Each structure stands twice: as C-alpha cells, then as structure tokens.
C-alpha cells in the first residue's frame, strides 16, 4: 500500500499534541460521564464514521464569472485519487471517492481500481454528466438531456448513464447518482408535465440496466442552470419519481439544493420514513447552491440533519445506511484542506447527534415539555466533541490536527512542482 504523507511525520505531529489532547479528552470524558455517557463508545463510533469525497472537489472550483486556478491542481483522475488519499490518510474518515463521468473516465478501469486499492480507497456512487456537452458529442444538451424533446438526445443521455453503470461495476461501485440540469428558463418554454413524463421514460431505461445490488439516486435541485422551472426541482418530485421507478431508486439530498430556510431535516425525516432516503451531498450555503464547506455557515442545521438520521437509525436498524458524500466547490481555499475540514465537520455532527438521549427526549416530547426538548438538542449541539474526533483520528492512524499536519508535510508544494499547470486545462473542479 502506498502512503503519500510520511507516517513518521504524522507520528511526530501527534506526539507534539499528545499531552494537550489527552488532557482535553480526559476532561471531556469526565463531563460526559456525569451525563451518563461513555466517551470510549463515542470515540469508537467516530472511528466507524465515513463520508465519501467527490473527485471533482479536489480541483479548484469557480463561478460563471471566473475560475482562479490553484497550485498543483490534479490534471487527471489518478492525480485526483492521490489528493483524495491524502485527505483520508490524515482524517481517516474518507475511505471512498465518488467519481464523475466523463470527467474521470479511465482508459483502463482495472488500472484505476488498482490505483485506488493501493491507496486504500474504494469507489462510492458514480455520477453521470448530461449537464454539459462533451467534445465530439453528437446531440447537444442545450435544451435538456433525459427530458429533451429530441428522442435521439434522450437516447444519447440514457446510453451515457448506462455506460456509467458499466464503469461503476468495474470500479466496485454500487450506485449511480443522476442529477440533470434539465428545465426551462422561461414560462412557456416547456410543457411542464411532458418534460417530467420524458424524464421518467428515460429513467426507466436506466433503471432497467441496474444490477440487482445497485441503487440509483435521484438528486433534485431547485434552480441553476434552469432559472424558471427545473424538472427535478424538489424532494416531492424526486420522491414521486423514485416511487414510480421502483425499490432500487432513492432520493439524494444535496444540502445546497433547496430554497433558503427550507427545513431540510424534515425532508430527511420524511424520506427516511418512506424508505426513500438514498444519500447525501454535504456542503453549506448562505444564499443558494453556494457549495461552501460543510458546517461553515449553519452547523446547527447539519446537526439537526444528523439528529434525524440518528432517530431513523434507531427505528430502522442496521439496514438503514444512506450514502454520505461531500459535494463542494472550493474557489478560494486549498481543496484538500477544505475537504478535510468538511469531513471532520460532518463527523462532528454525527457524534453530537449520538449525544442526544433519545429515550429522555421521547419522554420530554410525550409530556409536551417544549423547552427541555429543545434544550436536549441544544446541549448536544453545544458540546465540543473535538477531543473525541482528534482521538478517533489518532487511534485510526490519522492526524490529531489534519490541516496543521498537511501544511507541515509540504504536500501542496510538492504537487505544485510535479504538476505544472496545463494551458486551458480545467478538467477538475466545478467551473
Ligand atoms: C449539481 O449542482 C451538483 O450538486 C450535482 O451533484 C453534480 O453532479 C455536482 O454538483 C457537480 O456539478
Ligand atoms: Mn450535488
């Protein structure tokens, strides 16, 4: 197995922080014990947590105005995997990568799988891309893909999704995520019902190509690129489509894809209740689909999402396993740092949600004790579980402080000289 960050460097880094960490861990352990909670059980829980990294997230993103390239950006899927491996080596919370095709299409899937294996990585859901035209593509997606009026365009988009399934099989993936930007920019542009009927017809063909042990995740998004009526705009449409398609179809919740102030945790509860919660794209936002780092704007919302997930896990048992993935665009930060930070923030919300005494909360709710019910959640959210997360990382072979250790490793400088920027290349990152 190849490691990209020197194990000795990580050990030195951890040794430097050990005294402080142990003191903080002990203090937190004492406080939790007084609340009847076992810090060791929580640390073990944190060690089991995993969230997948989006291959496109390791490139520098941009907006429709500009993209400011970063140093040492990965130029192909192999280099992207290296960056993803660094994130996992230091956080020990991201053992899988979610690839995007055709951006990450390998010439040899076996070679790519071997490379991932060697880096200790697996592949999570594969993503199709029919929201932009590729070079030498026969039919344009300018007016839609799976919903297009043209049957030839729809067939081309269906074929691409089926190719993604094939590639995903070779990589050991078990799910396909379908997000389409299809929609209308002007009233009258679309027959709203007709577009959704065409979407379902196309999705039925894709669904039919799924292996028995696969799922297809339907990702909804309110707007962009369509600014008037997006075909799969909300969780209701996503749920209706997943239901119409069958048991292998589930809904994917990207935290940035809702109207401001939408109660996302309630959507999570609804989808879990009806067995249609497939997975997540975690990120944060202030205004729209900003794709900011997870937990950077509204960490309480992230906690409340995990509070619903903890409730669902208790009700559904081990079969309840939504896919956790990040989906962010890093425009002004080092993508490796942002992704490490986000993985830790999602893990933090997961552990904080486990602090809630669910039996006690149920009693408070039963007796209509509104104030103490709210306080039960607030107390968990206010608890700083950082020592648990750091201890979990150290015990799993990661870094007590992933960003500090990453900076000390000089990885970015190394890749900056090994990966000179290619003129005009922007194969990585969201542009
Ligand atoms: C769309 O905004 C999205 O959230 C989908 O998941 C895409 O696959 C991804 O971003 C990258 O464009
Ligand atoms: Mn997404």
Automatic annotation (TrEMBL):
<dbReference type="InterPro" id="IPR013451">
    <property type="entry name" value="L_rhamnose_iso"/>
</dbReference>
<dbReference type="GO" id="GO:0046872">
    <property type="term" value="F:metal ion binding"/>
</dbReference>
<dbReference type="GO" id="GO:0016853">
    <property type="term" value="F:isomerase activity"/>
</dbReference>
<keyword id="KW-0413">Isomerase</keyword>
<dbReference type="Pfam" id="PF01261">
    <property type="entry name" value="AP_endonuc_2"/>
</dbReference>
<dbReference type="InterPro" id="IPR036237">
    <property type="entry name" value="Xyl_isomerase-like_sf"/>
</dbReference>
<feature type="domain" description="Xylose isomerase-like TIM barrel">
    <location>
        <begin position="104"/>
        <end position="291"/>
    </location>
</feature>
<dbReference type="InterPro" id="IPR050337">
    <property type="entry name" value="L-rhamnose_isomerase"/>
</dbReference>
<protein>
    <submittedName>
        <fullName>L-rhamnose catabolism isomerase</fullName>
    </submittedName>
</protein>
<keyword id="KW-0464">Manganese</keyword>
<dbReference type="InterPro" id="IPR013022">
    <property type="entry name" value="Xyl_isomerase-like_TIM-brl"/>
</dbReference>
<keyword id="KW-0479">Metal-binding</keyword>
